[in-house]
TrEMBL record:
Pfam families: HxlR (PF01638)
Keywords: DNA-binding, Transcription, Transcription regulation
GO molecular function, one term: DNA binding
Domain HTH hxlR-type: 15-113
Name of protein: BH3884 protein
InterPro entries: HTH_HxlR (IPR002577), WH-like_DNA-bd_sf (IPR036388), WH_DNA-bd_sf (IPR036390)
Length: 128
């Protein structure tokens, strides 16, 4: 889970947020995690929820989250193949942080646009 330096020593961080962003930073990982908070999802479901993400990027992000033990990947022995992703107990630890980001984001949209429902594609308030 932690990145190793080439010399064999452990990577050093300045603050905890740096380590958190290394695992869940970027445009797509927080959205993937947020969507998995509603339950396990297939790749196709995640693509529908995030239409702007490419299949390659989604696969890359899912692999990274799996490597960091934030999500699990379950492969069913079926034809056609069925794969589902869900949060691990460790991944659920990100819920409070993502909830706060969601609330802040809604406040930000209200401040900038006046009515967040005008700019959120499918308006859905943050989960309680």
């Amino acid at each position: 889970m932690t990145e190793q330096r080439k010399n064999g020593g452990q990577k050093k961080y300045q603050v905890g947020v740096e380590a958190a962003l290394e695992v869940m930073g970027g445009k797509w990982k927080p959205l993937i995690i947020y969507h998995l908070m509603t339950g396990r999802k297939r790749t196709s479901e995640l693509r529908r929820l995030m239409p702007a993400i490419t299949q390659k990027m989604l696969t890359t992000q899912l692999r990274g989250l799996e490597k960091d033990e934030i999500i699990t990947r379950k492969v069913y022995n079926e034809v056609p193949p069925k794969v589902e992703y869900e949060l691990t107990p460790y991944g659920w630890g990100l819920k409070p942080a993502l909830d706060l980001l969601c609330y802040w984001g809604e406040d930000h949209l209200e401040k900038v646009y006046g009515d967040k429902s005008k700019v959120l594609e499918e308006f859905q308030s943050c989960k309680e």
